[in-house]
Amino acid sequence: MSGNTTRLRVHDPTGASGASLSHAPRLDTLAGKTICEISNGMWEYQRVFPALREQLKKRFPTVRIIPYSEVVSGPGHEDLDLVSRLVKEKGCDAVISGMAA
Fold first, then answer.
1. Which residues on neighbouring strands pair with residue 98, listed in sequence order?
2. How many helices (H) and strands (E) does the chain have?
3. Which of 29, 44, 90, 39 is nearest to 65 (CA)?
4. Is the pLDDT assigned to residue 55 strictly greater than 60?
5. Closest C-alpha to 39, from 86, 7, 93
6. Fewest beta carbons within 10 Å, which of 14, 47, 79, 84?
7. Distance (Å, whole) CA 87 – CA 95
8. For residues 65 and 70, what is the distance between their CA atoms, to the nearest angstrom?
9. In terms of Cα–Cα distance, which of 45, 20, 30, 37 is closest to 83?
């Protein structure tokens, strides 16, 4: 056996995990629930939200969807207190937020 040795140092690139924020619990169903849309005004939102609305209403006929135009829309709605207040005022059980570019 040769006297040559190779040493490797391996680093874990994932870093420490520890989410400081957690998601709300999932709803058991969307039937009879109120869903608020929040648009960031990105990539085809004016086409995607109506298509999504249509599919949700087919699958859950009693779902109530409040369109982004009645909640908050467009880039710059980083004011989480405002968004939270609007969603609560509308009585939303869930939020669909998007789209991505």
1. 39
2. 2, 4
3. 90
4. yes
5. 86
6. 14
7. 8
8. 10
9. 37
Q: Is pLDDT above 90 for 97?
A: no
Rounded Cα distance, 80 and 94, in Å: 15
**Cβ 97 vs Cβ 40: under 8 Å:** yes
| Number of domains comprising the chain | 1
Is 71 contained in some domain? Answer: yes
3-class SS at 89? helix
Task: Please report whether residue 89 resides in a domain.
Answer: yes
Assigned token pair, 58 = 């087919």
Q: Output the pTM of the full model.
A: 0.69
CA angle 60, 64, 65 (to 5 degrees): 105
Residue in 94, 92, 89 with CA at minimum distance from that of residue 29: 94
Sign, CA dihedral 86-90-91-93, equals: negative
2-23 tens-digit pLDDT: 678 888 888 878 877 776 777 7
Give residue 45's domain range. 38-98
